[in-house]
Design goal:
Layout: E1 14-18, E2 21-24, H1 25-46, H2 60-85, H3 88-93, H4 108-126, H5 130-154, H6 182-204, H7 213-230, H8 249-271
Antiparallel strand pairs: 1-2
Helix pairs in contact: 1-2, 1-5, 2-4, 5-6, 5-7, 6-7, 7-8
Length: 276
């Protein structure tokens, strides 16, 4: 019997409204994740002990300025990625749907590509080491992932398959039966666990002294976490399984990330002491 022992929390996705303007938990999650990530990034670049002799070549002012670039990359890339990977047919039929970010529809993989483009352009403009910028940004991304997945849970979206686990929930939008709370699985794995692992590498293993190591661990760690959770997550209704009754779009998009992450880890030591 797929009955839930856990009551789904009665949290309105809209925090409050001012006339037609609605402030939602989803938007607040993005803002909170970006601001906390910014503060953590400033701490990292300001701690000379974590960097090769001479300290970080990225200044706190660089981090302040990059905040705007990162925000644009996350939002634009996340939305464009979702449209291209998951919702192209619907947006082609109704182009105004592309603007409805308050209804969810943000792709992590698209946001990653948007942020990657922002990092490459910003590093060139400021003449700062690209892989070091990658490492700082990747070290703080799990903060945003945690808040974003919690917001997905509040929105009752991206839930999992039917489950008889005692921690399963009956989601308001998921039918009458209990389902895996895969949003919380991802919040724990991609958010809390990955944040802690990267912090341990940075503060205990001097990972920032080997450019590309932190970003490699993040990218491969995210890919593995996402692939694992996809086995419990309900695939998008309009896409379904791509093959074999188990392969999903999330898995397909994560496999190249895993390959790139492994490459970055394997080559990090060779970049130690180099300007890149």
């Amino acid at each position: 019997m797929l009955l839930s022992l856990m009551a789904f929390p009665d949290i309105d996705p809209v925090i409050f409204s001012i006339g037609p303007l609605q402030i939602r938990w989803y938007g607040l999650a993005y803002v909170t994740g970006i601001l906390l990530g910014w503060r953590y990034a400033r701490m990292l670049v300001g701690n000379a002990r974590l960097w090769p002799e001479g300290g970080s070549r990225i200044s706190a002012l660089d981090i302040d300025d990059f905040l705007v670039w990162a925000t644009i990359g996350i939002v634009a890339g996340g939305r464009i990625g979702y449209i291209l990977f998951y919702d192209f047919a619907a947006v082609a039929a109704n182009p105004l749907r592309a603007l409805e970010i308050w209804n969810g529809g943000m792709s992590f993989h698209g946001g990653l590509l948007g942020t990657l483009a922002a990092m490459v352009l910003f590093a060139r403009k400021r003449a700062i080491p690209l892989f070091s910028l990658f490492d700082v940004v990747c070290a703080v991304v799990p903060v945003g992932l945690f808040f974003g997945r919690v917001a997905n849970f509040i929105n009752s979206e991206l839930w999992g398959k039917l489950s008889d686990a005692p921690w399963a929930f009956v989601f308001p939008t998921g039918g009458p039966f209990a389902r895996h709370p895969t949003q919380l699985y991802e919040a724990a794995l991609e958010g809390l666990l990955l944040l802690a692992a990267l912090a341990w590498l940075i503060y205990r293993r001097d990972a920032l002294k080997m450019p590309g190591l932190v970003s490699g661990v993040f990218v491969s760690g995210y890919a593995l976490s996402r692939i694992f959770v996809e086995f419990f997550r309900e695939p998008d209704a309009h896409l379904g399984y791509l093959a074999g009754g188990w392969l999903t779009m999330g898995m397909v998009l994560s496999l190249p990330m895993l390959a790139v992450g492994i490459w970055a880890i394997a080559t990090a030591r060779s970049r130690a002491g180099s300007p890149a």
